[in-house]
Specification:
By secondary structure, the chain is α/β, with parallel strands linked by helices. Strands 6-5-7-8-10-9-11 form a seven-stranded mixed β-sheet, sandwiched between helices. A four-stranded antiparallel β-sheet has the order 2-3-1-4. It is 27% helix and 18% strand.
Amino acid sequence: MPGAASGVAVGAVVAPKRHLQTVIKALDERQWRKKRTKVHEYDCEHLAVAVAPEGARALDAFGSDAESLVPAPLAALLRDGAVRWATGHRHVSAAAAPSPAAAAAAAASPAPPPRFRYAELFAGVGGFRLALDGLGGRCVFASEIDPCAAATYERNFGDAPLGDITEVPDEDLPAHDLLTAGFPCQSFSRSGEQRGLGDARGDLFFEIVRVASRCRPAALLLENVPNLLRVDNGHALHIIVHALTRAGYHCRLQLANAAALVPQHRERLYLAAFRDAAAAAAFRWPSLPAARGAAHRALGSGTVGVGDGCPPS
């Protein structure tokens, strides 16, 4: 699984202004341009156009068999040296400041030192944050690409999450103790095409691996749909656990149904991962009240991993 710790394929086409519209048109032809990431200054003479992972993979392989995938106008500019491909380039605007009301409240009543610091990827409207703040945690980083969910998050908590996690450079990721993520489920859900990690959305799991490898939090708490167990005959889950094991984590999995807590059948797969083997062995999933049969069931009694389940030292 080469490159898992680097996250998904990312990059930007770097072009002078005179070629910008040609580049944008060519990328849009393949739906490769990240339209939520603005064209931005790369240096004093060039602009950078962010490219989605599908396009980034093709451009990484430009000059080989994948060259035919690159639109002809863009391929011609690349061969002539008029534009260039900046693989791995990430760009994101600075984090939004807290809202005036939240800033005023914080100034009037400074928060006590947190029990732990956490970061959340694919944050949605802040479900993990609602629980973790109540346990004495402090959110130091959040990312959510959907503008409606991000706006709701800001209204809920007073500060705005960053957008596309694939555009956040490693050096802008703060230290934290816990990393949470409800990573995109469309490619694992029974209602979708079930393409697993081969889908552009499923591939975003590797951004979790990138952040965990960079920041080395003590624990991870991840959530997805139960069908992740079955997609690609379980191979997708095998890759996920293997990637986390290689990153230095001991993994525990469980299916949990929140039907006793909310008025719907709400079964989800949770994955807790720990850098410390003893912490993983001591971890116990919480018990939920029974509702319409078993409310939750454990997957095995020990640490789940690949081979002997032990991460590299």
